[in-house]
Amino acid sequence: MSGGGRRPRLYGASAWHLLALLGCFALTGYAVSRLRDDPALLRITLWFVGAAVVWDLVAGPLIALVDRLLLPLRSRPRRVGLLNHVRVPALLSGLLLVVWAPVIFQRSEQTFRLKAGLDQDPYLERWLVITAVLFAMSAAAYAVRLRRAPH
Amino acid sequence: MTVAGSAPPSGRMRSLVERGPGGPTDPRSWRSPLRGPWLTSIFAVVLLVGLPVLIVTGLLSYAAYDPALGGSNDQTPGAGLLASYIWFDWFTSPSWLYRVNQGTHVLLGIALIPLVLAKLWSVAPKLFEWPPVHSVAQALERISLLLLVGSILFLLVTGVMNIQYDYAWKFSFYTGHFYAAWVFIGAFAAHVALKLPTMIRSLRGRSLREELRTSTADTVAEPMDPDHLVSPNPAEATVSRRGALALVGGSSLTLLALSIGQSIDPLRPTALLSPRGRSYGDGPNDFQVNTTFGEIGVDPTETESSWRLRLEGPDGRSVTLRREDLLAMAMVTEELPIACVEGWSTSQVWTGVRLRELAELVGGREADSVFVESLQRGGAFSTMSLTGKQIRAAKTLLALKVNGVDLSLDHGFPARMIIPAAPGVRNTKWVQKLTFRGGS
Questions:
Q1: Start and end residues for every CATH 3.90.420.10 domain found in chain B
Q2: What is the pLDDT of residues B50-65, one digit of tens each?
Q3: What is the ipTM, given to two decimal places?
Q4: Quick one: CATH architecture of B293-437?
Q5: Best of A6, A19, A25, A27 to mutate (most B CBs within 10 Å, chain B)
Q6: Distance from CA of A76 to the nearest CA of B (A)
């Protein structure tokens, strides 16, 4: 560590810092205490911690890895880059897939049929069409850039 | 690695402790030239506006059930002090209040997903910072950040799954979403309190207008910052900050554009991926259903001519009415929305009897509450209470017809409640008994 790492004081920050954090922990503690006899507490905790772990240690690194694999598509001198024309539609399509995964994969069809009287047949096809439109728009934009680029 | 083969083991050990095991703990492995306090603060300032709106609309939605009435109205009866902010009965006007509140909560929640993920991406190197702990203060702050990140992701995941009827978590949505929201409120408030000055300073450090004019070729890393967000080893930019902001904002708008139709009738077909973008047809009863009679165990024979509505007054007086008796009373027609906690809504024209007229028949006009019972067997909302304010509201109806025709069985035939400004589940279907309580 090059300087600034260790502070002389015992705590390492201002009293205000400690106060804000104690307030946060007190509220969490109270919320947990209200649930202590509820069998749901364990499941809620698992999903709570699971959500953070899956994003930070699985989804985030995975996205970074895929993005790194696309790097050869970036622009070079005298060449229009394809990279962002793949990145943008892929990211939008992936985001829609993650957000609407339950209906796209018909995970909740039985419940939905009982509740709303409807099936979940159209969603996978709709997502595929949206994805195709996104990539087509991006390809069109790429074609325009290629034509305009100086040779 | 700078550790030479000739270094003594103790030196190697010291190096591991000081520099970390490498990989993501090595700051040089984070290559994006975009990461830095300015970009993080841009995402932060949008969230600083958006997340409090989610908090307020969420707390209001809980209040809209009038949990003080107990029973099905209170899905989190153990809330204790966490429910103490509700000192008022829920409002009955304007009639679109809950529709707008809940539409905002759900649509904004969906639209903020890209912002939350972008913000987390921008601070990802901090998660792997080495050494992981260098003071008590920092250790505590890291715990609060786990609460912050865990709760916001939990709220987004449970919310997004709930509006799609995927209950894989196997706990009550109300319980999970409510308590996690309070954890989030505390962690968010602490984070803002500690980081607001940094955010303001970082935003002042660069001009937004300047960034919006900077091309990818001219994009370079921000100056090194004390919080170690900026890469010490930046790669060449493949996208400008302008491009990154456009991507995140565009993602939000895409999600919003593909969802907003679930809350606005004429736009419904545009909600392509939402379960509430579907049409049922063109008939008067062809609008969104959230509990079919088949699901909830309503026996259709009980809704036929043998059906009776039983009214009970606070003093024990009771009246029994046939559907014809109700149709002979003063009929009122109102356009009112059905607005679900799931965020979707639809406005329809209802015809029926004012609840206060029914209350009058059994001396319950000044009642404190009415306990509504359905023919449905089971389900979390087979009974529901309404406040005195809702009893007396001119637009609160026991509806018999919708859009000029009898209610369909799925929409609550022979009679259902329609309450202005209230959450969908409070509009009990297949009503069979109303018990007025309290008052004088």
A1: 293-437
A2: 999 999 999 999 999 9
A3: 0.93
A4: Alpha-Beta Complex (3.90)
A5: A27
A6: 10
